[in-house]
Amino acid sequence: xxxxxxAVVDTVFPTLDPARDVLAKVxxxxxxxxxxxxxxxxxxxxxxxxxxVTYGQITSEVIDGLKNCKVIGRFGIGIDNIDIPAxxxxxxxxxxxxxxxxxxxSDHAMALMLSLxxxxxxxxxxxxxxxxxxxxxxxxxxxxxxxxGLIGLGNIPQNIVGKAQAFGMEVAAADPYCPDDVFNKxxxxxxxxxxxxxxxxxxxxxxxxxxxxxxxxxxxxxKKMKNSACLxxxxxxxxxxxxxxxxxxxxxxxxxxxxxxxxTEPPSKDNPLVGRQDVILTPHTGFYSEDAxxxxxxxxxxDVADVLDGKPPKYPVKTSQ
Length: 321
Known about the structure:
Elements: E1 4-8, H1 17-23, E2 28-32, H2 38-45, E3 50-53, H3 60-64, E4 71-74, H4 84-89, E5 93-95, H5 102-117, H6 120-128, E6 147-151, H7 155-166, E7 170-174, H8 180-186, E8 189-190, H9 193-199, E9 202-205, H10 219-224, E10 230-233, H11 242-250, E11 256-259, E12 279-281, H12 290-308
Parallel strand pairs: 1-2, 1-3, 3-4, 4-5, 6-7, 6-9, 7-8, 9-10, 10-11, 11-12
């Protein structure tokens, strides 16, 4: 009897052994594409029973070329790199990991906020350049009593709420799809986007990347924010227009930004945010811990194995997405 063929489009993992161990129960053989291009993907995936992908693009062209595929597993939370309607039309189930790295990303968002609030990286740069000067760092406001505005109230921002409240912060959120009982349970004030932007001292983005949300943080949005406010993005890079953000910072329309994601990664040499003293950039590491990577592999691989074994997956992508 031939082995179950699982094609791997791309990977960020040092080893795929955790996924391989889980998929052993369906006698799977993992075969890696040389590069995440349509031709290279199909060279290993055209006859595959399943596909595993991290950042590679699973377009309608790729999906059309999948002859035996029953399930696509995305190593991550977002699914914007997979053509969901095309997969659904072909009867392919897509699974992902919506509850992985909740602790890591929520911690990272808080770390960026705290670093901006206390001017940690700015102060460190001063000291590294021989300046031990408190006056150069002022003003700094007390965190207690400040308002954190969350754009979205899904799993990750829900994890942030208690952490921010532990610092004595007020928390508000704008999310038209989140039930009122979630707001009430977490003691989070529900607001429309414009109101939230106008009252928040820190705005943390946790929205999915869709046609509707792409570029939602633009010149118009920044003009609605307090000039003392800071922006945090640990979600998707294209949600923020970085050229407009640079202008807003230069004009004093907002005070700072902490970004773990950018529209283009790594940033180009002419990225207007690189090197700014009022911006903290981290290289898309918000998701990372060794624990989270293990959870990610085993969660997705388990669902792929279940589909191949004729069982329902735990985390299928809803076709309405």
